């Protein structure tokens, strides 16, 4: 159970175990990059076809201002779209939880919305809503809304029946049952959904920009490709990957802060 | 004799075509500890669901302190199987749950519960999460959450069913001591014969489904029980007798598998 370790000592143990945990992944990625670097250097392939990782990094550094300027709109689109999506998903999940019949009516519509191919829908949304922020927000929301809604609904349903029976015996009305039991029960599901959706969100934003934008990583990639600069395309990819990882990390951090009871009881190493 | 706290008169319950309870008549007097003993799946928990209002029936009548149950308001504090503690709440906030639902402020609720932690062997664990506690402690916290609601009667639904044998024996002894001190009016559902004999003033033995009362046994052993050889011998005799009733072929239950170990439904 709870070892009486000092917090800092526990943290150090955790860090070491995290690093040990990540070591195979670091090695795998590292060797891939090395093979790529070797191939690009010695096979005589043109840098306009396959630039070496070192060249990508050098160019990324040289064009850091442009990359930064284009990353900001992407981040803004991602975050606002995701915020909208979270808000809508939460609101709807609550409504649907109280009126289950609505769920049967609405879920098929949402499932169909998830079958729309992004390549087709992104240009249309840009056509309808212009080159500004709005079409990006809408596309990000479209991509992430349903997974979040499903995660929340599943979470409510995962409430222990005995807990509901207990609250009912105490005379708790339906809204209290939701507030005291169903909502907290959904947290693990919500955060699992959040971690997946946040990565979709970045992809969604870049796709929307690709279909038409004044600024952003998506349009930057498109322009770089048209100018035969795969090194800059890859540099932008690198930035978007870093962005995604940061958002993923933020989601994990939020999960830890929101669910302190899981942290205190799980020992040392990461469980998932 | 004064009016019984709880009186069931020929209560039945049907689930579709399935008859779950049939002709159940029983009484619980104020300050009495009554156990409902029966095989798994015999409808013991259904009885509690009827009492807590989760389900209703129109067969028979149920009176609480002389009034029809439906008009008596919420008279029971219910303790479910397993502990049903909220993993996201600290123990202190778990034990105040019933008070919070009643609309009592969080601060006031805490003030009412806090002094009881020592008596329930939970002192120092107010700020722990349930997962940090042992099974026995969690069960004590669940009982604290139940009794602090200050309802006229406790309903205990196999409260120790999920515990290991040793912890269970300790908890039974502890609960008996607590009951002797507080004299709660309580109804315990169990399929553990020893537990029923150890804790109860009276036992109703139910048949397999459809559940009927097949025996009513007064346990007049002196308390505290199971401490001296003479009482232990008498308790063992009563246990053997009840077990005989439960396993009798014509009650249709014994089929070679152990009913003691089967998970309760």
What does this entry look like structurally?
The complex is a heterodimer of chains A (272) and B (265). Chain A has helices spanning 7-42, 53-62, 64-98, 100-115, 118-129, 133-157, 161-169, 174-185, 187-210, 217-226, 230-258, 260-265. Residues 266-272 of chain A have low confidence and may be disordered. The longest helix of chain A has 36 residues, at 7-42. The radius of gyration of chain A is 23 Å and the shape is flat. With 272 residues, chain A is mostly helical. Chain A folds into 2 domains: 10-44; 52-265, Orthogonal Bundle (MetI-like fold). With 265 residues, chain B is of the alpha/beta class. The relative contact order of chain B is 0.18. A 6-stranded mixed β-sheet of chain B has the order 6-7-8-3-9-10, with helices on both faces. A 4-stranded antiparallel β-sheet of chain B has the order 2-1-4-5, with helices on one face. Helix content of chain B is 32%, strand content 22%. Mean pLDDT of chain B is 86; it is low at 252-265. Chain B is built from 8 helices and 10 strands. Chain B folds into 2 domains: 1-75 and 152-265, P-loop containing nucleotide triphosphate hydrolases (Rossmann fold), CATH 3.40.50.300; 83-151.
